[in-house]
Every structure is written in C-alpha cells, then in structure tokens.
Amino acid sequence: MANLYNGKMAAIYDAMYQNFIDYDEEFNFYNNLIQDYHGKTVLEIGSGSGNLSKRFLAHNTTYIGLDYSESMIAIAQERNKKGIFLHGDMRDFKLEQPVDSILITGRSTSYLITNEDLNNTFQSIYKNLNEEGTLIFDFIDANRFIPFTKDDEAILHEAPFEDLIYF
Ligand SMILES: C[S@@+](CC[C@H](N)C(=O)[O-])C[C@H]1O[C@@H](n2cnc3c(N)ncnc32)[C@H](O)[C@@H]1O
C-alpha cells in the first residue's frame, strides 16, 4: 500500500483538511454516538494529523490513534503531547488491550481497495474490539459524488490557510 502522506504532504493535508472539515462538529457527532453506546475507550484508525484526537483528549477520553503514515503521526504527536499514537496498518494490527469503540473517519476507508483489504481490516477490528463494542466508520457517498464529477469537468478545491492558498 502506498503512503500518500509522507513528509511535507502530511503538513499540506493538515492545512487543507482544517479548511473544509468542521472538526468540532465531527467530534460532537462521533462522541455522542460513542457515549450512546457507553464507549469508554476509543481507537481512531487513520488518526491523521490528530485533529479529532485533540478533542477526544480534551474530554479526557481514553484514546489511541493508529495511522500508516509516520509523518502524520509526528504531526498528531506534536499537537497532542500526551496522546498515544501507534504506527500501524488497519489491515493487520494488535492492541495491548481491546477497546470499546473503533472509529474510522475522514474517508480513511477509501484506502481499502480490494476485498482482501476489507476482510483483513474487519478481522483486525473484530479482534481488537471488546464484546458489544462499537465500530463507527464513514465512506465516500458515490451517489452524491459521481453526479457532481459529471457536471463539473474540472473540480478545483481551494483551501486558504495561514497566508497560503492550497489548490
Ligand atoms: C484522509 S486522511 C483522514 C485523517 C483523519 N481521520 C481526519 O479526518 O483528519 C486518511 C488517513 O488514513 C491513513 N491510512 C491510510 N491507509 C491506512 C492503513 N492501511 N492503516 C492505517 N491508516 C491508514 C492515512 O495515513 C491518513 O492519515
């Protein structure tokens, strides 16, 4: 699997995503779901640059982040000095202790491109989730996305962030 977020790409990703994702809104949505199912411990797979991590940690959640990109982990760790971030692959990972909730957001499931990737990921998740635990994940909604790409031949995303504009 290629790592798309090496070195400076991780910092650019971090800048762009903060421009178009409302992490406060995301945190409230996912945290409410986790609380509804009495989740006390959370693993975020594809924790990226640690924007959700920051909010979980601020709420004193027992939180672990896991990501395939060491550059992303470095940014997340810098942002969350006391956070626990593991370098690993969602298709094959083993935590010391299973958790109550596993969360995959920001369309990180899009990186699973074969049936084998998907099966391996779900097996790993199953092994690392407590009985009655909760798995929460998002994905790209093709029904919304594909009509949009048909109407617009060129899709340009502009993300101003800290005196720079990213395209
Ligand atoms: C689009 S980013 C989303 C990050 C974060 N969830 C957010 O919303 O800001 C996808 C993340 O998934 C990670 N990733 C991709 N494949 C992975 C894998 N096989 N195992 C763990 N993480 C993976 C990438 O390194 C990247 O940090």
Characterise the protein shown here.
With 167 residues, the protein is an alpha/beta fold. The chain has a single domain, classed as Rossmann fold (3-Layer(aba) Sandwich), CATH 3.40.50. Helices cover 41% and strands 22% of the residues. It has six helices and seven strands. The strands form two sheets. The protein has a five-stranded parallel beta sheet with strand order 3-2-1-4-5. Strands 6-7 form a two-stranded antiparallel ribbon. Helix 4 links the parallel strand 2 and strand 3. Helix 2 crosses helix 3. It is globular. The relative contact order is 0.17. The chain binds S-adenosylmethionine. S-adenosylmethionine binds next to strand 2.
What is the share of helical residues? 40-55%
The distinct ligands, each listed once, are: S-adenosylmethionine
- Which fold name is given in CATH as the topology? Rossmann fold
What share of the residues does DSSP label as strand, in percent?
15-25%
Q: Please indicate the count of domains.
A: 1
Shape descriptor: globular
- Characterize the main sheet: 5 strands, parallel
User: Which blocks of ≥5 consecutive residues have pLDDT under 50?
Assistant: none
> What's the CATH superfamily, by name?
Vaccinia Virus protein VP39
Order of helices and strands: HHEHEHEEHEHEE
Enumerate the strands of the largest sheet in spatial order, edge to edge or round the barrel: 3-2-1-4-5
How many helical stretches? Answer: 6
Strand segment count: 7
Measure the end-to-end span.
25 Å
Rg of Cα set: 16 Å
Decide which structural class fits the backbone.
alpha/beta
What's the architecture in CATH terms?
A: 3-Layer(aba) Sandwich
What integer is the average pLDDT? 90
> What is the CATH first-level class name?
Alpha Beta
